[in-house]
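INTERNAL AUDIT FORM
Audit reference: QA-55
Scope: verify that the stored structure record matches its stored sequence.
Auditor: D.O.
Record contents follow.
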Amino acid sequence: MLASIESSAGRVILAPDKFKGSLSAAEAASRLAAGLRRAVPGIAVATVPVADGGEGTVDAVVSAAGFRRLRALVGGPTGRAVAASFAVRGDTAVIESAQACGLWRLPGGEPAPLTATSYGVGELIGAALDAGCTRIVLGLGGSACTDGGAGLVRALGAQLTDANAKPLPSGGAVLTGISGLDITDLSLRLKGIDVTVACDVDNPLLGANGAAAVYGPQKGASEDDVQVLDAALAAWSAAVAREIGTEEFATYPGAGAAGGMGFAALALLGARLRPGIELMLELAGFEERARGSRLVITGEGSLDAQSLRGKAPAGVARAASALGVPVVAVSGICDLGPEQLSEAGFTAAYRLTDIEDDVDRCIAHAGPLLELLAERIGRAHLANGGRS
């Protein structure tokens, strides 16, 4: 349980996501707090850094939700060992797939679209189980692999074999050769374990809107690679269907998340999918913290149409608006018009480019600029009663 939270009356809640390439969510919240306090000395603030299940999720729950960080040595996307983090509070573990197989984990940044694996994510889940956790929250996003979660379930005991009953190697492309799947040991390992996936995409596993077609190119896949990977995922889906007796999971919204890890979680881990930011806010006790507050400030590096489709700031705005608390957005750049911002629940929006019109300089100096932006917000919305 979270520690008792003091009265929120008159307080400002700072709930930004990361400013990618510049600031973590916790760093952004700290900068906002510094700027507000310069504009309104003595203002009470509470920092609740947020994430949507992708990169930065572990950092966010450690900073804002009373989780402790644990570390494990696991296989990265190419199999090379990496030191990855996960978060634990009581019997709940938060696993961030990008910690093990994120694009940022690729050695030298060299893409490996056909061979990258999710094996390390399964190892992280295994480490959480070994730590005594019985509830797993799996955040999906930012992965370097398109293996349908095959590596993940292999790490937890599933056996994948070819036509000669030989174990399949790692990667997505090799799944074209899958002949057998045995999940006996996997099922035993996960008996009594509750798995929830934090996911903000609605792609199925296969086809024009599937994992390979939509996200493969972001991971370095050529047009030919995409065709190979989609065929491999189809073979993987068929093998899973033969083992569990149903084909339905491949078509579920979110099955294509993180290179198809969503599919494996649904079909083989018995997972439930929930919107990432909704789940993260719940873990952080956001509603309890924000109720009765004076203002909520949220944001991320870029606010655009994609931000309105389940990204963290829009989720914060929805949650705060439901409590009757005004919400201000901050970002590096913002492509949303006043009507879009209002419909999303934002009272106002401020951009770093309002202060510095050179985007590269905004990225390089995001911290000090965000403090200046927070001063403007403090004077406009909080000083002498403000207008919020």
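Auditor finding: record pair retrieved intact. The chain has two domains: 12-50+289-385, 57-276.
Action required: none
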